[in-house]
């Protein structure tokens, strides 16, 4: 354990807490409570809940620590830092000291402001309390630190950050209500009760401590309770102080808190060791006695006896020609889950200065393999040796040399780039002098002082890569290092990796971009069903599993019939064909026919590209073969397909015998939309643990409140005053209702915020769901849930025969119904304040209680105090002004006083409200204001929603067209002069707040029915912004967007990120979205079944969306955009993070839908090849403006710099020798820099394809070269050229790239 690591943890934690405002919260909440405790006389009706408030003062601090701890587990921060060398003891101590220090700040604020407010208000301490202020301090200090340890205990048994906060709230707040059980004499006089409840909840313990310190009252003679008497000025205190003190005094409470402090810490550390995490690692429950799990490892069988340098378990293997010494040995590595081998006897060797790429389809076992190699999970069997260190006995030493770049960036959004690197340098205890070198190497020097949340996606990936290099890491694991990045940014990462590879490091890479593996990997391993299927170079994999060559034919309006006689040996690839391009596959066995084929095609004026099949095509073939084997036992066909000839587009397509419900137009139905919203609310509620806990919170508090009201006993003058007793019981019920419903508020706020965060709400509304239908369906379910709580309250009140309920039956029902209307709609309105559901769950509970109830009460008490202090007219006006504001804006304020004022208030009872000068003492006025608030909040919600979706029709007065390219200008003129395009964007501009540059700058285009338009551009070019403007998710600043259909029901949207409900199944998603578009009954069932089959999701129909793989989630998003009759569909990077097989399924689904409905599609993507193959029209967006626009082949022709010839030559020949041979036959050759070994790439302006092919084929037959490809300048090369312009613009203007 290192003190440097502990210090680094504390500094990191405090920087984050300061920058995200949590330290401010640590101080503000205690100030609120301190003020309310000082206003005992002014807020005397609330005195019965002051023991609760007393415990709540520092609760947000402890809760915040717990949420952070669970969040670090769920987001893999803890595992990443452990893999990179952070000692787990240092991690725990760092967080524990952080919690203690933050708690110390909260305690200082609490005690300091108590002293200040007591002094200002001149509170007579001895009149209200038996014990001195200092006597109360030391147990509270112990309680503060015990609550931190309690947070550690909760965090040790939870792995989901969203549920962590609700669990803490339920136990800490819910159990604190057990202090009211002291009104039952058997509980109040039982020491066992105090011990058990105190051990379960330190909040109860500190509540008992507060009660025992209260003054009993001077009029008490042998009674256990006294009340505030406005004439005798006796303190109001309903708790049985004498009984409690006789059984469990303040000293006992403090000592038990000390026991709890250490007990919670011990249990937290123990459970952290024995409860398995998601990777399955844990200690034996009796490990403290020296008992451990038996390791099923037979090292004698695992280590190959001869320690072979090139040993492998691969079925297909290419021998290593170089004599290299392996840096990593893996022998017979095996992992079993429930007697099923997920990884089976895997053996391989890894080498320095090489990049090894591990590939495999979903479920192949590659993630499990990487997890074992990094120590995240234990192996079942096998031997691993890294740099001569035994993995079983020297894991700590090995981890000092490991660097890990995870797929999801494990970065702290409030730390800068340099602070991240400093933190990890401290973890690895390395020299910080290397940081500048790493910043230079990863091209982050100019951004080193920016916090992460301001960095582009590309820069965040660079930072993750930089972190993996800290400490001179020898073994680097890179998991999808370029996921979601544009082609230019990916190439930047590639360049960095090529530099790193030369530094005596061993790099293990996983990726879904197979072109990335082709460029970077020295060796590739492909896993299948837990075994190593193949290992070797990229060319070895392609030749072993590839099907031959790909032939791209380009000519205006080319048709299959034009070339079918020439390409009798070719197999058409429909998904890569469009009206000016056909793509064929030629197998290796027919390669001798290629020369003749090329000659005949060139004679017809057809442009040709020829290349060896890519690694992706070989990988897809492996996956398809595996799927075929798995499906042989399944006799049910997923689809009945017909192959037909599509003469319009000139190639064959697969078309489904589709039901009419898929072809029909969408229909608006308010009933169906409300029902869809109701159903999705029902499923998300019953399947979300946090909602279940939030539901039970008011049930628990109400039940305890009813028991208090039933069993509380009054003495003295109050025992003879039934009216006063009734009022006080009603006041108790009102208080517990306030507490219960404030802590129940997350039940209603989380779903709207979640749907806003993942754009689900915007997608549904912009796809035709009416605002009224969305909120009405949601409200109906929420109000039913709320009504269940109220029915429970009324039934229990009737069972207990409480006069406080039975005497005011209809008033109680009316108040609760009106409060429900106001309360729920107010929460909906508050949901607009949050963009992140995690933040809403973390903060909203305490905001509801302290800002929604305590703040108006504090201000009410203070203004009344000032008025009593000096009864001048200004203070009277101030008192009533605040009350009017509260009645208009605060539901809890109206609820409390509507309930408290139900009985007729005599002068004495009014004094029980602390002598408050209320604007009215009539309950019905507060009920009227609750109804008013319902309509007020509803109208505000509708206004805010309506304002977001109103399209802008204002044109930019400063518009100029001088900078537009010819093609772009012509398209703009076509749109301006009027056209019948189904989508028209007319001079669209978009500028975000605090930005000088337009995110969209004079965008104009039109799209015809049945066409697909592709939009490509680098990160920050404005692609997603354009999609959001076109779909009306975001408004344009200037310009106009016209869509032929007046109803948004015809629009389908697939956003950049997965917009799904994690707890709904695939089938339920499709039911909800189909209902939104008017489908029901048999039509709905047919459409749902069709899209389940079409998107290859039928086998996952009953799987919850959160449990799907990344590829299946994207398939679901595509299906949701299509179902119900979408005629205009927008796809924003639909294949990000998707494996090649899933990507092809998505393309097939999309093209089929276009053919069936003749719909129009706009698609943005980072994958240039998919844009080229899918699109009829393509636009390249740079700096918010189209740089070029037209058909893909037209753009390639216009911006082409000739042909590129890529050659893989034999090892005995040098590049120069091959180049000299070519120069004898070809003119004006330019050599292109090539990072792949034995590869030569040249650029030549003009060639005769047939003669060039003939020349290269001769060299191949002479065994001078092994393979070659000839292709025209690709769109990717053009894109990279334009992207350089974008980066120059960003650098000049300092634009933040999203």
TrEMBL record:
Q: Which InterPro entries match?
A: AAA+_ATPase, ABC2_TM, ABC_transporter-like_ATP-bd, ABC_transporter-like_CS, ABCA
Keywords associated with the record: ATP-binding, Membrane, Nucleotide-binding, Repeat, Transmembrane, Transmembrane helix, Transport
Q: Where in the cell is it found?
A: Membrane
Q: Where are the transmembrane segments?
A: 91-117, 137-155, 167-185, 252-271, 692-712, 724-743, 814-834, 846-866, 873-893, 923-944
> What would be an example GO MF term here?
ATP binding
**Pfam families, per the entry:** ABC2_membrane_3, ABC_tran
Q: Which cellular component terms (GO) are annotated to the entry? A: membrane
Q: What's the protein's topology in the membrane?
A: Multi-pass membrane protein
ABC transporter domain span: 328-554, 983-1208
Keyword Lipoprotein in record: no
Q: Name the protein family.
A: Belongs to the ABC transporter superfamily. ABCA family.
What name does UniProt use for this protein? Answer: ABC transporter domain-containing protein
Per the UniProt record, the source organism is Paramecium pentaurelia
């Amino acid at each position: 354990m290192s003190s440097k690591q502990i210090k680094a943890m504390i500094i990191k934690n405090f920087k984050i807490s300061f920058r995200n405002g949590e330290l401010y919260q640590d101080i503000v909440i205690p100030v609120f409570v301190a003020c309310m405790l000082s206003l005992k006389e002014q807020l005397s009706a609330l005195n019965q809940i002051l023991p609760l408030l007393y415990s709540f003062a520092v609760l947000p601090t402890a809760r915040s620590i717990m949420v952070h701890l669970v969040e670090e587990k769920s987001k893999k921060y803890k595992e990443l830092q452990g893999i990179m060398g952070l000692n787990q003891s240092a991690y725990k101590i760092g967080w524990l000291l952080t919690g203690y220090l933050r708690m110390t700040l909260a305690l200082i604020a609490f005690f300091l402001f108590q002293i200040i407010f007591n002094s200002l208000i001149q509170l007579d301490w001895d009149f209200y309390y038996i014990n001195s202020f200092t006597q109360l301090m030391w147990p509270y200090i112990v309680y503060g630190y015990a609550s931190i340890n309690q947070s550690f205990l909760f965090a040790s048994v939870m792995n989901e950050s969203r549920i962590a906060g609700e669990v803490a709230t339920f136990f800490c707040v819910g159990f604190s209500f057990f202090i009211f059980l002291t009104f039952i004499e058997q509980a109040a006089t039982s020491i066992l009760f105090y011990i058990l409840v105190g051990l379960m909840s330190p909040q109860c313990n500190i509540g008992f401590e507060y009660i025992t310190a209260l003054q009993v009252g001077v009029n008490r003679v042998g009674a256990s309770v006294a009340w505030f008497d406005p004439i005798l000025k006796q303190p109001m205190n309903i708790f049985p102080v004498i009984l409690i003190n006789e059984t469990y005094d303040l000293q006992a409470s403090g000592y038990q808190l000390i026991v709890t402090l250490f007990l919670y810490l011990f249990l937290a550390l123990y459970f952290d060791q024995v409860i398995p995490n998601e990777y399955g690692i844990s200690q034996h429950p009796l490990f403290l006695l020296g008992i451990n799990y038996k390791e099923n490892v037979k090292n004698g069988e695992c280590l190959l006896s001869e320690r072979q340098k090139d040993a492998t378990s691969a079925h297909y293997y290419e021998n290593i020609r170089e004599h290299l010494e392996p840096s990593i040995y893996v022998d017979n590595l095996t992992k079993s889950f429930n007697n099923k081998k997920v990884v089976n006897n895997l053996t391989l060797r890894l080498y320095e200065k090489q990049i090894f790429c591990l590939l495999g389809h979903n479920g192949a076992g590659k993630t499990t393999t990487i997890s074992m190699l990094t120590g995240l999970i234990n192996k079942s069997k096998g031997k691993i040796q890294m740099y001569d260190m035994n993995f079983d006995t020297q894991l700590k030493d090995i981890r000092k040399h490991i660097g890990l770049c995870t797929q999801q960036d494990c970065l702290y959004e409030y730390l800068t780039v340099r602070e991240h690197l400093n933190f990890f340098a401290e973890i690895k205890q390395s020299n910080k002098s290397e940081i500048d070198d790493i910043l230079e190497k990863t091209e982050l020097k100019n951004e080193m002082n920016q916090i992460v949340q301001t960095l582009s996606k590309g820069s965040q990936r660079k930072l993750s890569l930089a972190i993996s290099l800290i400490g001179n890491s020898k073994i680097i694991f890179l998991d999808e290092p370029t996921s979601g990045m544009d082609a230019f940014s990916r190439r930047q990462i590639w360049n960095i990796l090529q530099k790193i590879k030369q530094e005596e490091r061993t790099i293990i890479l996983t990726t879904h971009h197979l072109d990335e593996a082709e460029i970077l990997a020295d060796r590739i391993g492909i896993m299948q069903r837990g075994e190593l299927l193949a290992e070797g170079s990229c060319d070895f994999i392609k030749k072993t599993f590839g099907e031959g060559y790909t032939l791209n034919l380009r000519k205006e309006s080319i048709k299959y019939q034009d070339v079918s006689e020439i390409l009798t040996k070719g197999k058409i690839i429909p998904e890569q064909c469009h009206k000016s391009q056909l793509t064929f596959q030629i197998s290796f066995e027919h390669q001798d026919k290629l020369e003749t084929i090329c000659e005949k095609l060139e004679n017809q004026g057809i442009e040709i590209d020829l290349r060896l099949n890519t690694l992706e095509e070989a990988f897809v073939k492996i996956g398809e073969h595996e799927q075929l084997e798995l499906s042989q036992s399944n006799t049910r066909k997923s689809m009945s397909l017909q192959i037909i000839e599509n003469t319009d587009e000139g190639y064959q397509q697969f078309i489904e015998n589709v039901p009419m419900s898929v072809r029909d137009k969408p229909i608006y139905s308010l009933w169906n939309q409300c029902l869809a919203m109701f159903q999705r609310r029902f499923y998300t509620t019953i399947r979300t643990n946090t909602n279940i806990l939030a539901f039970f919170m008011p049930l628990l508090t109400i039940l305890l409140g009813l028991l208090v009201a039933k069993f509380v006993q009054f003495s003295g003058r109050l025992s003879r005053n039934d009216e006063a007793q009734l009022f006080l019981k009603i006041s108790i019920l009102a208080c517990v209702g306030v507490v219960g419903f404030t802590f129940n508020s997350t039940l209603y706020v989380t779903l709207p915020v979640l749907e806003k965060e993942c754009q689900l709400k915007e997608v549904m509304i912009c796809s035709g769901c009416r605002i009224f239908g969305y909120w009405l369906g949601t409200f109906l379910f929420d109000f039913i849930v709320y009504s269940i709580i109220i029915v429970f309250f009324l039934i229990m009140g009737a069972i207990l025969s409480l006069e406080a309920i039975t005497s005011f039956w209809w008033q109680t029902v009316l108040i609760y119904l009106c409060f429900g209307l106001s309360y729920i709609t107010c929460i909906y309105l508050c949901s607009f304040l949050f963009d992140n559901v995690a933040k809403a769950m973390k903060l909203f509970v305490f905001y509801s209680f302290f800002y929604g109830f305590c703040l108006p009460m504090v201000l009410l008490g203070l203004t009344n105090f000032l008025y009593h202090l000096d009864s001048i007219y200004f203070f009277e006006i101030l008192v009533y002004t605040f009350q009017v504001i509260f009645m208009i804006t605060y539901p809890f304020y109206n609820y409390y006083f509507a309930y408290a004022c139900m009985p007729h208030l005599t002068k004495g009872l009014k004094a029980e409200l602390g002598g408050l000068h209320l604007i009215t003492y009539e309950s019905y006025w507060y009920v009227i204001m609750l109804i008013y608030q319902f309509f007020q909040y509803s109208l505000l919600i509708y206004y805010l929603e309506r304002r977001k979706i109103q399209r802008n029709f204002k044109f930019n007065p400063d518009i100029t067209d001088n900078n537009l390219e010819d093609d772009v200008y012509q398209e703009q003129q076509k749109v301006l002069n009027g056209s019948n395009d189904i989508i028209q964007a007319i001079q669209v501009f978009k500028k975000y707040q605090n930005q000088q540059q337009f995110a969209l700058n004079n965008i104009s285009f039109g799209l015809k029915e049945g066409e697909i338009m592709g939009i490509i551009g680098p990160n920050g070019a404005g692609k997603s912004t354009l999609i959001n403007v076109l779909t009306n998710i975001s408004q344009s600043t200037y310009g106009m967007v016209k869509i032929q259909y007046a109803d948004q029901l015809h629009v389908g949207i697939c956003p950049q990120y997965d917009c799904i409900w994690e707890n709904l199944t695939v089938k339920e998603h499709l039911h909800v979205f189909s209902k939104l578009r008017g489908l029901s009954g048999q039509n709905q069932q047919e459409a749902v079944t069709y899209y389940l089959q079409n998107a290859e999701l039928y086998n996952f129909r009953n799987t919850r969306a959160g449990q799907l793989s990344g590829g299946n989630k994207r398939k679901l998003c595509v299906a949701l955009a299509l179902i119900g009759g979408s005629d205009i569909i927008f796809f924003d990077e639909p294949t990000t993070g998707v494996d090649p097989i899933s990507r092809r399924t998505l393309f097939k689904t999309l093209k089929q839908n276009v053919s069936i409905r003749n719909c129009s599609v706009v698609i943005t993507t980072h994958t240039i090849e998919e844009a080229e193959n899918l699109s009829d029209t393509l636009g390249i967006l740079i700096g918010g403006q189209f740089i070029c626009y037209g058909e893909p082949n037209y753009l390639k022709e216009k911006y082409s710099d000739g042909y590129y010839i890529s050659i893989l030559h034999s090892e005995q020949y040098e590049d120069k020798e091959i180049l000299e041979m070519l120069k004898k036959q070809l003119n004006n050759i330019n050599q292109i820099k090539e990072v792949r070994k034995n590869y030569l790439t040249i650029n030549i302006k003009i060639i005769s394809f047939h003669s060039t092919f003939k020349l290269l084929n001769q060299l191949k037959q002479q065994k001078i070269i092994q393979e070659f490809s000839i292709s025209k300048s690709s769109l990717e090369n053009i894109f990279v050229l334009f992207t350089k312009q974008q980066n120059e613009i960003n650098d000049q203007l300092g634009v933040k790239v999203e």
